[in-house]
């Protein structure tokens, strides 16, 4: 029972973090047609800004998280203007954007190292409260992750479903030319999508930085896992993405428990290759938003 | 008198391939014109240029005397030039209501949205019955009705219909043809592109035949029905 509870909780926490990452990635993929290789470094950037606000400005962690998310929203606007807009409508535009995001990853990781130094740091937990369940303990940040991921992804779902900008995002994703004929400006939609992706990545970064030490490359692993999530959940719906995230989280927790840390990624990526071969559209197919 | 919409010496293409080779046409207020001609000879490219989706290489497109060329599709739409693309694709995973809302959002006059929605539902009652249904689950005819409905919600002054009856069964075609004839009386001007020559000639005042990127024939729609040259276009003897 203890082992089951530990795997379940660990899997759900991991799934929550991956869900936050993968939702933004999925949205960018379905709307812009690009995989954002810079997503991991955006997570790291969110974490480092949150650390600065808590440790340098002495702000409470919740406020620091909000400020870090706001900063990353601004970064998202710059990211779209500098890395997406100049390339996306060119020939092989999607490829150019992907290469640009890959380049900016290396660049920003070096900048983080230069600005914040090589010391290992952590962002304080959102709350010191913890919960024990059948011998497994859930820390404050893990609790916040468990609640925040479905709430934030659910809120994003509602925005896409009901708001004018959400309808514009879906229209552009489904039929670009017709969307432009009804007056939708792709550039404005792209900014919105990139900002949302940055905000979700930043929040995941703040949560992760309370669970593990921060490094400029702290987003690399979650990014890789988020790609696996997209392979499992598909990019057709946020519901599928979130379900895929929990599935990967649980799979990772179970394989780590039973086979050890070294074997877990091997099995995970093996599973991804099998899924890509058998169901390239994702294991979970549903269309909700 | 200045034409409401005019196309002057328009050239356009894709890469090195030239599609339009000096198209000239005009549309006056209160008028409906038809574009005829074989597929792949430039009609859709012409419409894409008018709506701002494609940039021509030479020539001009003017609406009420002002050039549309520097404008984005959104700006062209806001001037009242609304193109209704062939409706087979639409927005398959959006409901009929959301699709119509999308069209309404393009209309700068917010107060007109409700009356326009009533007008669309009056013209196509099936859309009201299928409001909550996903566009991708509609029949071909219903999709086309929805595509026209989206265009009407945008509050057009000139409505451009691209192949509204393509691939539809005869009964549905008649239903749409009736709706298009009703629309004629309500709109300031109409451009109809369709492979059904009979429909185009009955629903318009004048016609242009576009072939190899040029206007090869133009005339009065009623008289045009007798044109041997046009008949040959559709019989393949071109």
TrEMBL record, chain A:
Question: Where does the chain cross the membrane?
Answer: 29-49, 61-82, 94-116, 143-160, 187-211, 223-251, 257-278
Which molecular function GO terms apply here?
transmembrane transporter activity
Q: Where in the cell is it found?
A: Cell membrane
One biological process term in Gene Ontology: amino acid transport
Q: Provide the alphabetized UniProt keywords.
A: Amino-acid transport, Cell membrane, Membrane, Transmembrane, Transmembrane helix, Transport
Q: Which Pfam families match?
A: BPD_transp_2
Can you supply one Gene Ontology CC term for this chain's record?
A: plasma membrane
Signal peptide positions are none
Organism whose genome encodes this protein: Nakamurella endophytica
Q: What is this protein called?
A: Branched-chain amino acid ABC transporter permease
Top-rank taxon: Bacteria
Instruction: Identify its membrane topology class.
Output: Multi-pass membrane protein
**Which InterPro entries does this entry report, sorted A to Z?**
ABC_transp_permease, BCAA_transport_permease
The family annotation for this protein states: Belongs to the binding-protein-dependent transport system permease family. LivHM subfamily.
UniProtKB/TrEMBL annotation, chain B:
Under PANTHER family, the record lists: HIGH-AFFINITY BRANCHED-CHAIN AMINO ACID TRANSPORT ATP-BINDING PROTEIN LIVF (PTHR43820)
The organism's place on the tree of life at top rank = Bacteria
Any one Pfam family match given in the protein's UniProt record, by short name: ABC_tran
Which family is this sequence assigned to?
Belongs to the ABC transporter superfamily.
Protein name, entry field: ABC transporter ATP-binding protein
Cross-referenced PROSITE patterns, in alphabetical order?
A: ABC_TRANSPORTER_1 (PS00211), ABC_TRANSPORTER_2 (PS50893)
Q: Name one GO biological process term.
A: L-amino acid transport
UniProt keyword annotation of Cytoplasm present: no
What residue stretches are annotated with the ABC transporter domain?
5-237
Gene3D superfamilies recorded for this chain? P-loop containing nucleotide triphosphate hydrolases
Q: Which SUPFAM superfamilies match?
A: P-loop containing nucleoside triphosphate hydrolases (SSF52540)
Cross-referenced InterPro entries: AAA+_ATPase, ABC_transporter-like_ATP-bd, ABC_transporter-like_CS, BCAA_Transport_ATP-bd_LivF, P-loop_NTPase
Instruction: Print the keywords alphabetically.
Output: Amino-acid transport, ATP-binding, Nucleotide-binding, Transport
Q: Recorded GO terms, molecular function?
A: ATP binding; ATP hydrolysis activity; branched-chain amino acid transmembrane transporter activity
């Amino acid at each position: 029972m203890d082992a089951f509870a530990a795997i379940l909780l660990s899997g759900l926490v991991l799934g929550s973090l991956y869900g936050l990452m993968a939702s933004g990635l999925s949205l960018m993929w379905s709307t812009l047609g690009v995989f954002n290789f810079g997503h991991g470094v955006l997570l790291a950037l969110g974490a480092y800004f949150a650390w600065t606000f808590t440790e340098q400005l002495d702000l409470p962690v919740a406020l620091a998280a909000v400020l870090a998310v706001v900063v990353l929203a601004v970064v998202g606007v710059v990211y779209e203007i500098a890395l997406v807009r100049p390339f996306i409508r060119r020939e092989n535009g999607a490829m150019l954007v992907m290469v640009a995001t890959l380049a900016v990853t290396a660049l920003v990781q070096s900048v983080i190292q230069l600005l914040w130094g090589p010391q290992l740091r952590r962002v304080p937990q959102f709350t010191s409260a913890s919960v024990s369940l059948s011998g497994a303990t859930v820390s404050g940040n893990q609790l916040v992750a468990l609640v925040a991921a479905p709430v934030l992804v659910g809120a994003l779902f509602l925005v896409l479903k009901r708001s004018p900008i959400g309808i514009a995002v879906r229209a552009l994703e489904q039929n670009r030319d017709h969307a432009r004929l009804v007056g939708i400006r792709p550039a404005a939609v792209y900014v919105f999508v990139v900002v949302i992706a940055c905000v979700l990545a930043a929040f995941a970064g703040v949560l992760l930085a309370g669970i593990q030490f921060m490094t400029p490359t702290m987003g690399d692993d979650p990014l890789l896992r988020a790609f696996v999530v997209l392979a499992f959940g598909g990019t057709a719906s946020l519901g599928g993405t979130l379900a895929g995230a929990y599935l990967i989280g649980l799979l990772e927790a179970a394989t780590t428990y039973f086979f050890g840390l070294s074997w877990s990624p091997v099995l995970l990526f093996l599973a991804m290759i099998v899924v890509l071969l058998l169901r390239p559209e994702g294991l979970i197919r549903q269309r909700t938003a | 008198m200045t034409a409401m919409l005019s196309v002057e010496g328009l050239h356009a293409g894709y890469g090195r391939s030239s599609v339009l080779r000096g198209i000239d046409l005009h549309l006056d207020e209160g008028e409906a014109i038809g574009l005829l001609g074989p597929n792949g000879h430039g009609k859709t490219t012409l419409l894409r240029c008018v709506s701002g989706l494609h940039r021509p290489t030479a020539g001009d497109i003017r609406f009420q005397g002002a050039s549309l060329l520097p404008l984005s599709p959104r700006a062209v739409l806001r001037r009242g030039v609304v193109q209704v693309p062939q409706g087979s694709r639409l927005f398959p995973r959006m409901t009929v209501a959301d699709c119509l809302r999308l069209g309404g959002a393009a209309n700068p006059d917010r107060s007109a949205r409700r009356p326009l929605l009533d007008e669309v539902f009056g013209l196509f009652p099936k859309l009201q019955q299928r409001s909550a249904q996903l566009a991708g689950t509609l029949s071909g005819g219903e999709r086309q009705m929805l595509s026209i409905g989206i265009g009407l919600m945008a509050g057009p002054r000139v409505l451009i219909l691209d192949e509204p009856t393509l691939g539809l069964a005869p009964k549905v075609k008649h239903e749409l043809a009736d709706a298009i004839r009703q629309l004629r009386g309500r709109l300031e001007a109409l451009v109809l592109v369709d492979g059904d020559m009979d429909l185009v000639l009955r629903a318009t005042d004048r016609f242009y035949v576009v072939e190899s990127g040029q206007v090869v024939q133009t005339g009065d729609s009623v008289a045009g029905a007798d044109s041997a040259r046009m008949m040959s276009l559709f019989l393949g003897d071109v």
